[in-house]
């Protein structure tokens, strides 16, 4: 559906390799429509790639309509999200309702550390951390239903990792354990290919988003988004399939331009 979009009371996770469009999709296709509709965005940043200046100048975030929160651990992330929900719940009146029209972005879950790793590093005792998945499970258990009842959508960018022991399944796994998989209503896997000239100059990138899980739309299908490095997202790319189905065009060239 070309008139669809992200649901306004669900959690959406986008997982993929580095540079595959996770953050870009969140800022342009999740945040921008919400900002235009008057939403306030709590942007939780964990990778040091985003600052207030870039959100305003590069992505068009209106000043005073978002708050950038920098966290490095799952515990701090949980505390910040809980504070947001507590404030909304205190302002709800007689019923759960997102009066302030807020949304949350976590960019990214995969880069979150834990208090244990920090403590071990201080002590000089680096050990395997088995607590992250458990704390993430507690975070999702605490916030998912409350955010849904309040009408607070959440966008989660996440990493994938390669599991060499996965002999009979996909070796690419979503980071962070199983809790995010269960609590997010939509999970997209993203990948990319480059568009190059004959001289190997990179003109842009074709981002491919596959539906790993969805409680709303059809699963196991994919959608391409073309991002030109000079012109930005080509909002018309992919619409040729609708034109073909409607017999508006007889054929279509595979060229992006």
Q: Can you lay out the helices and strands and say which pair or pack?
A:
Elements: E1 11-16, H1 22-36, E2 40-45, H2 52-57, E3 66-70, H3 74-90, E4 102-107, H4 115-123, H5 132-150, E5 154-162, E6 172-174, H6 179-183, E7 186-196, E8 202-214, E9 222-228, E10 232-234, H7 240-245
Parallel strand pairs: 1-5, 1-7, 2-3, 2-4, 4-5
Antiparallel strand pairs: 5-6, 7-8, 8-9, 9-10
Helix pairs in contact: 3-5
What does it look like?
The protein is built from seven helices and ten strands. By secondary structure, the chain is an alpha/beta fold. Helix 2 links the parallel strand 2 and strand 3. The longest helix is centred in the middle third of the chain and has 19 residues. Strands 1, 2, 3, 4, 5, 6, 7, 8, 9 and 10 form a ten-stranded mixed beta sheet that branches. Helix 3 runs parallel beside helix 5. The mean pLDDT is 86. Helices cover 30% and strands 27% of the residues.
Put simply, the count of helices is: 7
Shape: globular
Say how many strands there are. 10
Q: Helical proportion?
A: 25-40%
Major beta-sheet overview? 10 strands, mixed
Q: How much is the average pLDDT?
A: 86
**Computed structural class:** alpha/beta
Task: Report the span from N to C terminus.
Answer: 23 Å
Along the chain, the helix and strand elements come as EHEHEHEHHEEHEEEEH
- Unreliable stretches, pLDDT < 50, 5 or more residues? none
Cα radius of gyration in angstroms: 20 Å
Instruction: Kindly estimate the percentage of residues that lie in beta strands according to DSSP.
Output: 25-35%
């Amino acid at each position: 559906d070309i008139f669809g979009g992200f649901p306004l009371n669900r959690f959406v996770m986008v997982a993929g390799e580095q540079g595959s469009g996770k953050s870009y999709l969140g800022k342009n296709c999740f945040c921008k429509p919400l900002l235009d509709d008057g939403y306030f965005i709590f942007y939780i940043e964990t990778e040091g790639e985003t600052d207030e200046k870039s959100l305003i100048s590069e992505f068009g975030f209106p000043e005073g309509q978002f708050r950038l929160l920098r966290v490095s651990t799952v515990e701090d992330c949980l505390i910040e999200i809980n504070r947001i929900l507590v404030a909304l719940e205190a302002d709800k009146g007689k019923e759960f309702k997102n009066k302030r029209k807020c949304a949350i972005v976590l960019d990214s879950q995969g880069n979150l550390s834990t208090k244990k790793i920090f403590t071990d590093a201080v002590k000089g005792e680096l050990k395997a951390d088995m607590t992250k998945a458990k704390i993430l499970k507690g975070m999702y258990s605490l916030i998912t239903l409350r955010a849904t009842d309040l009408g607070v959508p959440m966008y989660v960018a996440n990493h994938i990792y390669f599991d060499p022991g996965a002999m009979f399944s996909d070796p690419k796994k979503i980071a962070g354990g199983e809790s995010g998989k269960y609590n997010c209503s939509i999970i997209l896997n993203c990948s990319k290919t480059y568009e190059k000239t004959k001289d190997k100059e990179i003109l842009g990138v074709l981002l491919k988003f596959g539906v790993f899980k969805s409680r709303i739309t059809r699963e196991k299908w994919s959608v391409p988004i073309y991002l030109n490095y000079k012109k930005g997202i080509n909002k018309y790319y992919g619409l040729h399939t609708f034109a073909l189905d409607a017999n508006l065009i007889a054929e279509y060239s595979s060229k992006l331009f």
